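**Discrete fold encoding**
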Amino acid sequence: MTDFALHLLRHGEPERTGLMLGRTDCASTAAGIAACVDQAGDLGIETLISSDLIRASHAASAIGRTLNISVTRDPRWRELDFGAWDGMASADLDPEALGRFWNDPDAHPPPGGERWSALVARVSDAIAMLPPRPTLIVTHGGAMRAALAALCGFDQRQLWAFELPYAALLSLRVWEGQPRSAQITGLYA
């Protein structure tokens, strides 16, 4: 069975922290971008993909310049859309509504926001279209968890057992098939 390496890299620390950053676009700090470049150093990638949000795409561009690889931007790798909560601090939200969301983001999405299953579906679609060669995707914590759900079968509650800080690198071995499946080979925070 054919397999390939897939590396998922969370963007570096954003300039605005402590907020529900889904579709809200803000840049990463210079140190956050540098941390991403450091993580990508010796992966031996042939394909470089990024979310189209600047906190991910700027890091991908820096990686691409360092490795002399072009970047493809794909909006399917965006973070979950937090709807009316997007760009707000968690402390400013109704704690009961926020708790229901964290416990079951599919049954209790943010007002006007995206359901967990919709995020998993769009990330699954992006995974199905990946070329079977060593790939790095610079993305977001939610999209990384959605990829684990799609490729490894983790349910939403299990996914919160993985800490994915800024610039965390999650490496997988992906096997061809319908659907594709994977094994985690490393998590570097």
Observations:
- The chain has a mean pLDDT of 95.
